[in-house]
Amino acid sequence: MDSKVLAKKWWHNAVVYQIYPRSFCDANNDGIGDIAGIISKLDYLQQLGINIIWLSPVYKSPMDDNGYDISDYQDIAAEFGTLAEMENLIAEAKQRDIQIVMDLVVNHTSDEHPWFVEAKKSKDNPYRDYYIWRQPQADGSAPNDFHSYFGGSGWEFDETTGEYYFHQFSKRQPDLNWENPKVQTEVHNMMNWWLDKGIGGFRMDVIDLIGKEIDQKVMANGARLHPLLQEMNKATFGHRDALTVGEAWSATPEIAKLYSDPARNELSMVFQFEHITIGWHPQHGKWEPQAFDLIKLKKVFTKWQTELADNGWNSLFWDNHDLPRAVSKYGDTGEFRVESAKMLATALHFLKGTPYVYQGEEIGMTNVRFDSIDDYQDIESLNLYYERTAAGVPHEKMMEGIYANGRDNARTPMQWNNEINAGFSIAKPWLKVNPNYTEINVQAALNEPDSVFFHYQKLIKLRKEQPIMTYGQYIPLLEDHPDVFAYLRAQDDDRIVVINNFSAKKITLSLPAEVQYIKGQSLISNYQSHHNLADEITLQPYESFAVAYKQPMA
Ligand code: TEU
Ligand code: CA
Questions:
Q1: Ligand nearest to the CA of 204
Q2: How far away, in angstroms, is 37 Cα from ligand 2 center?
Q3: Ligand 1 centroid, distance to 322 Cα (angstroms)
């Protein structure tokens, strides 16, 4: 029954907490979150029990894409603080047994990065080949019809040198040319500079795109991708026992194993997004969300749990700074907000892999519906709003797309208490606070022993106590049930059965033979505790629980 024994890693049973610095906590009251604000909340994160913080970019940047456009990789944006404060954050976190994982954004730089400023000067500038330039077509138009993820062409014309440069995101985020060995060395040196400062590893932005083959129109998973990652591993974090997670929207289980099979010396794991994109429209993507289909979602989880069971490692997440809030997408933001938020946490955290908690998820924060497009800040939402409405998409329809999947849903200020601006800042925040902060906030959660916060705290503690949660085999149950996500974890004769009602309905369920009449111990639940099971059970709306038991000898 046991899965192949993996060399144990310090991060195998860790839980990661993602911080979006602009929206976490504003210590100097300029309306923008900062590093001093993060330091002031480390005790709160220690109480939650997390061991790793993934810190979204804090580097110098003109903030065209909120820091995912970096102009100096080895300095801190003034609005976030100073290098000394960053070093203090690393030290203060370590004192609380928390490692800092930095965001590595090297598919592209900012157009204000000195490399690009130089590269634009002339065709024979020594930095020219740090980026991707092509001649215009005979009629002066762009080299090809590649479309940027943020709308418009992926090619921008540069008057000075009469050539186009390539950018997969905004035109102020020119793509780096990873075929240039100088670029590789620059990035490796920068990564070692940060590792020498005591960080615990890197989250790697759109890492699947660095191996692109422009002229063959291969953007992701190009032939050079994995050799580049193996060289990066060898030159930087490979001998440092660091956690590395690559953002790879194009990953399949096969490809994910190439990244995360320890024998290949590439990364610890990847973020894959199949459980996200199944809810998107095949052509119009996230702007025309599709009806939720639990059976489809379960199939995706079972595929990834099963295919990466023995070699490779999964990341587990519902939320991040680009995605809508899970309780709004899969749960209920009204009567059953707390129950559904807890259910989603249990359903995810008992799976095999490394769980990620996005700031605010631990208190059940929800999506937001701002009245006007002018209230939105996200470059992707704004660009696509104007591009799609100009192409005839009705305003209301596009706003529904933004309400459902826009990135600002995840970026409203963290809700610390029910005072002004939710305790995020005394000053007017850079993005409006979600008005439900009066009810949903950390202070209220800490004052309520049965809150979503303490549910996450318990799940994180259980993962440290129950090796089966980390290394146990995953076995799907009730795969065809339209409203219940149930599965087993198995290690030797230890078992955990996990049952989750994804609907607001009461459901009477015939239990699978494997778990009928088991006598066990309740590990966690969001209604009453369950220790022993019979042959059937009636689940309350969004009811969710996990029971540990011994497999009766055959
Ligand atoms: O995201 C990659 C990416 O494709 C998403 O930005 C995109 O929004 C997608 O539609 C998901 O909703 C990474 C970062 O996470 C994101 O914040 C950056 O904007 C992007 O790369 C460029 O650096
Ligand atoms: Ca600030």
A1: 1
A2: 7
A3: 6
The model's pLDDT over 180-230, given as tens digits with 9 standing for 90+, comes to 999 999 999 999 999 999 999 999 999 999 999 999 999 999 999 999 999
Q: 82-134, pLDDT tens digit by residue?
A: 999 999 999 999 999 999 999 999 999 999 999 999 999 999 999 999 999 99
- Enter the pTM of the model: 0.98
Give the 3-state secondary structure of 194-231.
HHCCCCCEEEECCHHHCCCEHHHCECCCCCCHHHHHHH
Locus of tokens 């700074």: 321
Active-site option among 205, 288, 339, 378: 205
Whether the CB-CB separation of 412 and 22 falls below 8 Å is answered with no
CB-based contacts of 328: which residues, under 8 Å, 6+ apart? 366, 367, 409
The strand pairing partners of 520, in sequence order, are 549
Instruction: Tell me which of 247, 319, 322, 362 is the catalytic residue.
Output: 247
Output the CA 389–ligand 2 centroid distance in Å: 34
Query: What's the CA gap between 60 and 377, in Å, rounded?
Result: 19
**Cα(98)–Cα(92) distance, rounded to whole angstroms?**
9
Task: List all residues whose CB is within 6 A of at least one atom of ligand 1.
Answer: 65, 68, 105, 149, 169, 205-206, 247, 249, 321-322, 380, 407
CA distance 475 to 495: 10
Number of residues that make up the chain: 554
Task: Give a three-class secondary structure readout of 229-250.
Answer: HHHHHHHCHHHCCCEEEEECCC
Can you point out the beta strands (E) in 141-212?
155-158, 163-166, 201-204
